[in-house]
Amino acid sequence: MAFEHELQKKPNPFLPWPLSPLHPAPAEPPAMSCQTPATPAISAPQPAMCPVDGAVATERAAAMSHWADAAGAHAAEKKPAAQKPVSGFDQVVNGQNGASISTADAPAEIALPRHLRRGMQRAWRHSMPHGRSQEQGGLYVRNSDGSTQWLPGASGDSGSFAVNYDDVKPEQTVLAMGHTHPYSKQEGGYRDVPFSGRDLALHVYEQQRMNVVQSGKGLFGSARTKEFDELVKARGEDGKDALFEEIEAYWDDLYTNGKGNLREKAEAATRATSEHYHLLYYAGKKGKLNKVDTSPPKPPANQHDAPPQAH
What we know:
By secondary structure, the chain is of the alpha+beta class.
């Protein structure tokens, strides 16, 4: 089966509590004495009931002034609002300071947002009509009011999907693109097949930072990084086409000369190409993706290479 989806370039305070009929004022106020001051029914200023020594009055006034000042200070003190943690998905698609996230700062886990997850699930359900493979996909966008939605695209064929960038309104921002990788029984019935070379190479032209593939229950994510963007910038506009072809050829060569079945070779090629060109690679199921370690495996230690023991 051909690994490709059609390239579509698209540029981008306190009120006194009233007396209630259920709580009428007493008919006669209780007797007041200097030994047992009465508590007033409402919080209104009350006249002094007993003479107070001048020194005592001064001391009381100072104390009241202190607590009034303290209360005022505390009343004006506001706790900072708790900030909602930024999700791994938002870190990747929004980037840092206007640039794509760096490889070192990439989140270890990503949870796909509900609309994107459901959009991909629906796309997969329609990817095998009458037993024939037919790629499906769409775009995950953010609206001007901050809400998000999934824009499903038209059905593709057994090996390609035309990205529906024309469905995006001027006030919408594309956050991610997704498509499926189905294989009929005649094509081997493979599942959990990640990206193709063309899927990865298209990052050169795309404005959104993340792409998603669903194949069976397997979900895969590929995202641009700061380092990848710097590579594209260094090549210049005239060098984009050449870089696209270079990335696709790099993947194709790894796949062609790889070992294993189609899924295994596609996995190995995607991992190595992502490492070579500074792309983030995620894999998982049920909307939860984990960052794949794309660094080359270390060769096993050779006991014969160990230094000789001192005698």
